[in-house]
Amino acid sequence: MSQKTLVNKNLRFTLSPGQEEIGRRAYNLIIGATLLYGFAVNAVMVSLFQDFFAGINYLALVIGYIVCVLIGAFLTRSDSGLISFIGYNFIVVPLGAMLSVILPYYGTELVFNAVVITGTITLVMMAAGTIFPKIFLGMGRMLFFTLIAVIVVELGAMLIFHRDFAVMDYIVVLLFSGYIGYDWAKANAYRRTVNNAIDSATDLYMDIINIFIRILSILNRNS
Fold first, then answer.
1. What is the separation of C-alpha 32 from the centre of its chain, rounded to a whole number of angstroms?
2. CA angle in degrees (0–180, nearest 5) for 63-93-2
3. Residue 137 and residue 200: Cα distance in Å, rounded?
4. 20: CB partners within 8 A, 6+ apart
5. pLDDT digit string (tens) for 67-105?
6. Number of domains into which the chain is organized
7. Rounded to the nearest 5°, which phi and psi values hold at 77?
8. Do the domain assignments include residue 43?
9. pTM to 2 decimals?
10. Rounded to an integer, what distance in angstroms lies between the CA atom of residue 139 and that of residue 64?
11. How far apart are CA 196 and CA 179, in angstroms?
12. What are the C-alpha distances in Å from 79 to residues 27, 183, 201?
C-alpha cells in the first residue's frame, strides 16, 4: 500500500514559482486536518456503504483500488496543493471501499481496539520524530530496503506457500511505526507550503493505515 517509491520528495525542499511559505502552526494544522479528513471519509464509507461495496466483485475492487492508488500517487507529485489533494482522495476513497468490505468481518470491538492502539503508536512515533529528527531522517534508506524485503517475502509466501506468516504483521507494524517518525521528521524539514503539508499528510496516512490493518490482523489472530 505504499507510494513512497513513486513520489519525488526532493522537490519538497524547494519553493516552486508562485508558492509561499506559511506559518508552522498553519502548516501542522493542514497536515492534521488532511489526515482527519481522510479518516472521516473512511469512517463514513464504512458506516454507510458496506452493502454497496460488498456486492462488487472482490477482484474488480482490488484492481480498481490499485489503479486509483497509482493515479493518486502520480497526482501527489504535483507542486499544486489542489492537485495533490485530489490525488489524496484517489487514495483515501478506494481504501474506504476496501475497508467497507474488510472491517465487518472483524467486529466493532476489535476495530475499536485497533484504532486506539494505532492512534497511540502514531502519537508516540510523531513525538519521537519531533525529539530525534536526525535519527529518523537517517533511517530512510534502511526503511526503504526493509519495505522492499517485506513486499518480496509476503509475495513469495502468498504465491509459493499460499499462506501468510503471522510474524510479518509484527514486522510491518514496526516498519511503518518507523516510517511515521521518519515521515514526520521529513515533514518538519520540508518548506512549509500547503502542497508539502498535503503531501506529508498523504505519507502519514499510508503509514497509519498500514499499521491499523496489521494491528487488526494481530488482534484477530490473538482472539
1. 14
2. 65
3. 14
4. 193
5. 999 999 999 988 889 999 999 999 999 999 999 988 988
6. 1
7. -75, -15
8. yes
9. 0.88
10. 33
11. 17
12. 16, 18, 15
Domain membership flag for residue 2 = no
Find the domain containing 129 and state its range: 20-222
Residue 4: inside a domain, yes or no?
A: no
Inter-residue contact 223 to 110 (CB < 8 Å): yes
- Dist CA 115 CA 117 (whole Å): 6
Cα(141)–Cα(161) distance, rounded to whole angstroms? 29
* DSSP conformation class of 79: S
- Within a domain: residue 9? no
- 210-221 residues labelled b (16+ CB within 10 A) or e (exposed): bbbbbbbbbbee
Question: Are 216 and 173 contacting, i.e. CB atoms less than 8 angstroms apart?
Answer: no
* Listed residue (123, 118, 71) closest to 99, CA to CA: 118
Q: How far apart are CA 51 and CA 7, in angstroms?
A: 34
CB 4 within 8 A of CB 204: no
